[in-house]
Specification:
- Helices cover 59% and strands 14% of the residues.
- It is an alpha+beta fold and 601 residues long.
- The chain has a domain at 241-378.
- A hairpin with a 2-residue loop joins strand 1 (2-11) and strand 2.
């Protein structure tokens, strides 16, 4: 099984990320330790979901906020073809498709179990973690994994702990010298391969030299990047133009409203609605109100007098006549006031006049507000400045695009983009190759590949002389599967510890699996070693167990620990793994800021 592509919509720190695979050894680069861990988690989550022992650890990467799409997918390649596996982590739904020609054939979710068992050899996530997933903080052996429990039962039932005995340690052990020579051979071969690949990439780049001008400074597709920037600039310009248009439209609306008020004001009789006329009307109304009050009182008094008996009325006759005369005088005054108001207001009722006068004053106030000059706000000036800058940027990008179109000439743009993509991929591959080659040369203290190869050749000759005089030791490991497993684990331990510890054997404490290691410093239980070295012991056993349990043509390993080892041990480990699993896939998740393990010094 090989991962061809990992696509993450959102998972923890990873948002809209894609990682390309499809090769026997693939490197996914993480920017920090947290992202390195998330990459391991998301691959596990897509393949196995959230098993109980990982749920608390994984769910911290998943938000339950509505509207966020937390999902990831894998494209994997098998002997039966390609499959697309996708999970939505919000509702923990799984989809799996088989890629057929140009279409996707939907499969039931249970097809993933068949696929994992057929390709990885296990459906248990605990076993998968033991033989396929190697993380810096998860190196210790999970004693609850079924594979480990099965191995312990084999050791107990066969008495293998007493049978598996490593060769006696000797400072002139020829097997150790052979391992060193093999490591040098692998290192020389790797340097030669990288140098050859780098030269081949340079030659391939020369074929696309004419398309260098279509690459941006960040080695991206300049046409595509400029087109995206031009679209963004056009949208930005449209946004500011819309703001300016809205402000201009607002000013037009204000002007229309002001004109409407002017027309309404012009419809009023200016000679009538003056402060003097208003003052006279108010004075007459006040006098009228007073006269009305007096009239009411006089009428009430007259009514009272007239309601008396005949004898009383005769005695009050003069008083009654006087009241009548007052009433008549008041009525005359009121008639004169009404006449004056009629003439003064040109037939309008006073209350209507006063209402119209108030309305006219309101019109004047509203018009004054609308006509009041408002200074241009700072925000308006900024909008105009930003609009000018957006137009200038849009024009600049348009000119750049036209220049690129002119450079393309008659060639189809899709053809240009295809060749630019090919050139970009070549440059990326060369950068990866050169980075690895530089790391190897730096680890050897050399600057040029030729000097490094000469140095290694001289070192190999020295070891061959030592080998010729070394005392060969009999191999007492045995050839049964358990003995072979621990021989593999011992070889791996020698690589990981640079020969400090060369032999690893099992040790049981009850039903718990432990290890005894031996080397130049003697023999010791692994749990008594410093934590970093103890982790390397478990790593060596797990890798050997992985070799025993996984078919070499289907082997699948995820390692996020290599940057914590010195360059020479990293190379030795990769070389041995490629020898063990020549047709499988090894995914390296590297944290460039990682620190070395204590046992990897």
């Amino acid at each position: 099984m090989q991962i061809k592509k990992l696509m993450v919509k959102r998972f923890g720190e990873l948002v809209d990320r894609e990682y390309d695979g499809g090769k026997p050894v693939v490197t996914f680069t993480a920017r920090n330790a947290e992202e390195q861990q998330v990459l391991c988690e998301v691959i596990m989550a897509v393949l196995f979901g959230f098993p109980p022992h990982r749920r608390a650890r994984c769910e911290r990467y998943i938000s339950r906020v509505k509207g966020g799409e937390y999902s990831a997918s894998l494209v994997i390649e098998t002997e039966d073809g390609e499959y697309l596996i996708g999970r939505n982590f919000n509702d923990e739904s799984l989809e799996i498709f088989q890629c057929q020609a140009r279409r996707l054939l939907s499969l039931p979710a249970t097809a993933l179990m068949d696929l994992l068992y057929r390709e990885v050899g296990t459906l248990n996530p605990l076993d998968f973690e033991v033989i396929s997933l190697f993380e810096p903080d998860q190196l210790l052996l999970n004693q609850h994994a079924p594979l480990v429990r099965e191995h312990v039962q084999q050791l107990i039932s066969t008495g293998a702990c007493q049978r598996i005995v490593p060769p006696a340690f000797s400072t002139t052990n020829s097997s150790q010298i052979k391992l060193e020579i093999e490591k040098i051979d692998r290192l020389q071969q790797r340097i030669t391969d990288l140098q050859k690949e780098s030269n081949e990439l340079v030659q391939e780049e020369e074929q696309y030299a004419a398309y260098e001008k279509f690459l941006s400074s960040g080695q991206g597709d300049l046409l595509e990047e400029l087109a995206q920037e031009y679209t963004a600039a056009s949208l930005e310009r449209s946004f500011y133009e819309e703001q300016v248009r809205e402000k201009q439209e607002a000013r037009k609306i204000i002007e229309r409203e002001a004109q409407r008020l002017r027309e309404k004001i012009a419809a009023f009789d200016r000679s009538l609605y003056t402060p003097e006329v208003e003052e006279r009307v108010l004075k007459l109304l006040k006098i009228k109100e007073q006269r009305m009050t007096y009239l009411q009182k006089e009428e009430v008094e007259l009514s009272r007098l007239e309601s008396m008996g005949l004898f009383s009325r005769l005695r009050q006759k003069e008083l009654i006549e006087e009241r009548k005369q007052r009433i008549e005088k008041l009525l005359q005054d009121l008639a004169l006031i009404r006449e004056e108001l009629r003439v003064l207001l040109k037939g309008k009722r006073p209350e209507d006049y006063l209402a119209e006068k108030a309305q006219l004053e309101q019109y004047y106030q509203d018009l004054s507000k609308l006509e009041r000059p408002t200074p241009r706000s700072k925000g308006d000036e900024q909008t105009l400045e930003r609009l000018a800058m957006a137009k200038k940027r849009e024009e600049h990008l348009r000119q750049q695009l036209e220049q690129l179109f002119n450079l393309a000439g008659r060639e189809e743009l899709e053809s240009v983009k295809t060749k630019v993509k090919a050139l970009r991929e070549l440059k990326q591959k060369k950068r990866i190759v050169d980075t690895e080659l530089t790391a190897l040369l730096t680890g050897l203290g050399q600057e040029q590949p030729e000097a490094a190869l000469a140095y290694l050749d001289q070192k190999r000759k020295t070891l061959e002389v030592e080998l010729a005089t070394a005392v060969e030791e009999p191999n007492t490991w045995g050839d049964d599967p358990l003995a072979v497993l621990y021989q593999d684990a011992s070889n791996m331990l020698g690589v990981l510890t640079a020969g400090q510890y060369r032999f690893l054997t099992p040790h049981l404490e009850g039903d718990q699996l432990g290890f005894i290691v031996s080397g130049a410093g003697g023999e010791a239980p692994s749990h008594q070693l410093e934590p970093g070295t103890a982790g390397l012991v478990v790593l060596a056993f797990r890798l050997a167990l992985s070799r025993q349990r996984q078919a070499k043509e289907k082997a699948f390993l995820i390692l996020s620990i290599l940057e914590q080892l010195p360059a020479d041990r990293k190379i030795g480990l990769l070389s041995l793994l490629q020898e063990w699993f020549p047709s499988g896939q090894i995914i390296l998740i590297e944290n460039r800021a990682g620190e070395k393990l204590a046992g990897g010094r």
